[in-house]
Design a protein that fits this description.
By secondary structure, the chain is mainly α. It contains 20 helices and no strands. The longest helix is centred in the last third of the chain and has 31 residues. The radius of gyration is 22 Å and the shape is globular. The protein starts with a helix and ends with a helix.
């Protein structure tokens, strides 16, 4: 009888119920909210589902992120090995290759002025940088936090790892991906506040056709120019342009299909679950996390506002030929931000079609955020 009692006691002590803290239960609840948003509301489910599930796993079974040094048998937890691929900047770079293979750069090539809108939307990054400094973060931590303003999860992970801010990587990545998912909620009020009904209804001229030669030369030229000026951007910009070259060359369809489908989704699963698994209660529930979430929201709002305001300036300069709404797509959430520009514009005029015009600033924003990350790395002497 005593053997049975002892066995049952040992089994009970091994359950998670005996080991979880209040913080773990809070994070489990947060993970369930994220799963609800992903499944019921369809807010970027490809991102939120794996992130939320990783969050759920690590707060039920913390050892799933155990490092080799912490283990008794020299073997780390499953998601620890996934996470190493984030730290080594492998997964963010592969994500960029997949994005390049999936995305049509034609609207940006057809309207090079879109680069200005993409650049304007990066204002949120530098606003967040100085805000983070004011809140007590050191310069490298502030730089890692500020990239959230570009609404670009892979770049946020890449820069945090390169600057040695692994302690902040979890909150930074979760904040960046959360704001990417919440673009349809956060952006429209800002866009409507800064524009008039007449401006939102502006119809833009159809973009000129882009030749195959232009499409092939664009990724090659951008890689050469950007990487010569900022070599530190090569892992991100280089992979983005390589993926697009696969797409536009027309001679490597197998590579295009693999990069934009199978490989992309495998990487999203590994990256998402490992990012979610960095949000243990001990690492996530602290004052720095609250600061990061607030700074990220402010940065994202500032970036959206700056893009719209610059769009208004271009509208005036072109005598009403540019719809200011496309400026909000200058953040890096591809293609969600461009879809939001289309949706808000269609609310003012159902016949208005802004999607392809907004894709120009959207693609420019991806490049701009990578350049901003490379600039920070160059400033701090990190390669």
């Amino acid at each position: 009888m005593s053997y049975i009692v002892e066995t049952m006691r040992n089994l009970m002590q091994q359950t998670a119920f005996c080991n979880l803290t209040l913080g773990n239960y809070i994070m489990i609840a947060v993970a369930c909210v994220f799963l609800y948003l992903a499944i019921a509301k369809e807010f970027e489910p490809l991102l939120l589902c794996p992130i939320a599930f990783g969050m759920l796993l690590v707060n039920i079974y913390p050892d799933i992120m155990m490092t080799v040094e912490e283990s008794s048998n020299g073997v780390g937890g499953l998601l620890h090995y996934f996470y190493l691929l984030d730290e080594w900047a492998i997964l963010p770079s592969l994500i960029f290759m997949g994005v390049g293979a999936m995305t049509d750069f034609g609207p940006l090539i057809a309207n090079p002025k879109s680069f200005l809108l993409g650049a304007a939307a990066q204002f949120g990054i530098f606003a967040a940088y100085f805000g983070a400094i004011a809140l007590g973060f050191n310069d490298k931590a502030a730089a890692a936090v500020s990239i959230i303003g570009g609404a670009d999860g892979p770049t946020s992970i890449f820069l945090a790892g390169k600057l040695g801010q692994t302690a902040l990587l979890g909150p930074i990545a979760v904040a960046a991906y959360s704001y990417m998912s919440l673009v349809p909620i956060i952006q429209p009020p800002i866009m409507k506040l800064l524009t008039t009904e007449k401006e939102r209804a502006i119809k833009m001229e159809q973009l000129r056709p882009v030749s195959k030669l232009e499409r092939i030369l664009f990724p090659i030229v951008v890689t050469i120019v950007v990487c010569l000026i900022l070599p530190t951007t090569a892992p991100l910009v280089g992979m983005l342009m390589l993926g697009n070259l696969f797409r536009e060359s027309g001679v490597v369809r197998q590579l295009t299909d693999t990069a934009s489908n199978a490989l992309m989704y495998i990487v999203v699963i590994i990256l998402g679950t490992s990012v979610g698994a960095t949000t243990s209660a001990a690492a996530f529930l602290n004052l720095d996390t609250i600061k990061i979430v607030i700074l990220g929201l402010i940065a994202f709002a500032f970036g959206t506002a700056a893009g719209v305001l610059f769009g208004k300036l271009m509208c005036v300069a072109t005598k009403g030929k540019v719809n200011p709404l496309i400026g909000s797509a200058g953040v890096s959430a591809v293609p969600m931000a461009a879809r939001v520009s289309q949706k808000v514009g269609a609310e003012s005029d159902p016949t208005n079609f802004l999607l392809m015009h907004a894709m120009g600033p959207n693609v420019a924003g991806v490049i701009g955020t990578a350049v901003a990350a490379g600039t920070f790395m160059a400033v701090f002497g990190v390669f």
